[in-house]
Design brief:
Blueprint (H helix, E strand, L loop, with lengths): L10 H56 L1 H4 L30 E4 L19 E4 L19 E4 L16 E5 L22 E2 L2 E2 L4 E2 L14 E4 L4 E2 L5 E3 L2 E5 L5 H25 L33 E2 L10 H13 L7 H4 L32 H4 L3 E5 L16 E3 L2 E2 L3 E5 L12 H4 L8 H11 L4 E3 L11 E4 L4
Parallel strand pairs: 3-8, 14-17
Antiparallel strand pairs: 1-2, 2-4, 4-11, 5-6, 6-7, 9-10, 12-13, 13-16, 14-15, 16-18
């Protein structure tokens, strides 16, 4: 019988095949990981570069607002540029009507920056609240609210009150999505910015919410901030990246705004004192300052006899009527033969602003675009309080409180100006009743100091340098 011999494959050869298969699998896995790492690294670089451009834009806008009174003498800090509507990098002014929020390309040239874009090469876009844009202007104070609500991808508002709404928004559009066809100008935000959850980043409109409107508008606007989103086919449907300016971000600007108005008030107080100082050859008591209007009844716009602490009196005619009367009586009653009321009685009206020759606190100033004008004063009036040293008042004997005023531990020789910071969430300043409540304006050390002054105790106003938007600004003659 013939035998058949079967040849078995050596174990060594089988092991080589197995090793080859394992090596191929490992190489495939390593390659996949490397590709994923490269993609993640590329996305990280993309994200970092875009965020850097957004942050540079945000910083430049805040700096522009902070220095606005230096670059535009005679106007308050706080204003922001109009967007660029032509694509040349320059702010296009005027932009719509007063009070209307607008959107356009980021005005990098106006802000002194190189051209800013995201990594895809798309230009940054920019929306500014109507009350903050510089042309045409609206009256701007530290209480002016932003008009932009920012929502997340779940539809949650990131800021919940008027005091917290954003002042401006900067957008990085990212690569165009399938529905977009982009042109080099800045006339079609819909070709750069997307819609998500019924929120249109190109117009600020949220469908179904009547309180919002298409930009430009005076209504509130809504924008959405979300991670990049893709559909079921892995196609990008939303890739806008946002940065926005909040009131907290604007704190240094609000502080500078309060300082700016305090300086203007100080100039008018000093001019008032100068105008009646040393009439003729007969010496008078030196620099004197008027009585104040009520601090707890904002509707009373005339000075009150004996009131050393309160608001600026702004009645159209003879706002300082009782100041004049009491100062004359002081001259009549004073036994000093060199003092005679006929020579140094105080004025019953505010003087002309030495910068403009227009009346200080002028209620007839109707042009907001007049440098150093007083058009905005009615909006500042309730936020400003004055305390006068008793010896510098029209007639110290009539003063309702005889207590000294000190600033940082040193007795104030003339006057102290106190400008309330931006209202806090617990403070309301809408109607006359609310504007007549000191608690809606002052808090902490300064509220305590006012309480002491009104109760005839020595009142020390500490030199607390403001750090937040709500912090009050205090200064004395020569130190504003």
């Amino acid at each position: 019988m013939k035998r058949h011999h079967f040849i078995n494959m050596p174990d060594k050869q089988g092991g080589l095949v197995l090793m080859l298969i394992v090596s191929i699998l490992i190489l495939s896995i390593v390659t996949s990981i490397a590709l994923r790492l490269n993609q993640d690294q590329a996305q990280a670089i993309y994200h970092k570069s875009t965020i850097s451009a957004l942050e540079d834009a945000k910083t430049a806008l805040i700096s522009y607002a902070l220095l606005y009174d230096k670059t535009h003498p005679g106007f308050s800090p706080g204003y922001l540029p109009c967007p660029d509507s032509s694509g040349n990098g320059s702010s296009t002014s005027p932009c719509s009507n007063a009070g209307k929020s607008v959107i356009g390309c980021f005005p990098w040239r106006t802000l002194g920056l190189p051209q800013l874009s995201d990594v895809s090469g798309a230009p940054l876009w920019y929306a500014v609240s109507g009350g903050y844009k510089n042309n045409p202007k609206s009256v701007l104070t530290a209480d002016t609210d932003g008009l932009f609500v920012i929502e997340d991808s779940a539809g949650n508002a990131l800021d919940n009150t008027d005091q917290e709404y954003a002042i401006a928004v900067i957008f990085a559009p990212g690569p165009q999505v399938d529905s977009q066809g982009r042109s080099p100008d800045c006339s079609e935000p819909s070709q750069y910015l997307e819609t998500l959850n019924n929120v249109h980043n190109d117009t600020g409109k949220k469908n179904g919410v009547r309180a919002t409107g298409n930009l430009p508008t005076k209504k509130r606007s809504v924008f959405i901030s979300s991670p990049v989103l893709k559909d079921a086919h892995n196609i990008v449907t939303f890739n806008d990246q946002l940065r926005w300016i909040t009131p907290d971000d604007f704190a240094p600007v609000y502080i500078q705004m309060n300082r700016w108005i305090a300086q203007r008030i100080s100039t008018c107080l000093d001019e008032y004192a100068r105008e009646h100082d040393n009439y003729g050859d007969v010496p008078d008591p030196g620099d004197l300052y008027p009585w104040m209007a009520s601090y707890n009844n904002i509707s009373e716009d005339i000075d009150i006899s004996g009131l050393r602490f309160g608001h600026i009196a702004i009645k159209a005619e003879e706002p300082l009527k009782f100041t004049k009367r009491d100062s004359y009586q002081r001259g009549e009653d004073d036994p000093d033969p060199y003092i005679d009321g006929d020579f140094w009685e105080m004025n019953d009206e505010w003087p002309d602003d030495p910068i403009t020759n227009d009346n200080c606190f002028d209620q007839d100033d109707t042009d907001i675009n007049t440098a150093y004008g007083w058009y905005s004063w009615p909006e500042w009036h309730d936020k400003v309080f004055i305390a006068v040293n008793k010896d510098k008042s029209p007639y110290p004997a009539l003063a309702s409180t005889q207590a000294d005023i000190s600033f940082d531990g040193t007795v104030v020789t003339d006057y102290l100006i106190l400008v309330a910071g931006r209202r806090q969430n617990t403070q309301v300043r809408s109607d006359d009743a609310e504007k007549s409540d000191l608690d809606n304006y002052l808090e902490g050390d300064y509220r305590d100091a006012v309480n002491k002054l009104l109760s005839n105790q020595v009142a020390n106003f500490p030199n607390n340098r403001p750090a937040t938007a709500a912090d009050d600004w205090v200064c004395i003659k020569g130190g504003c």
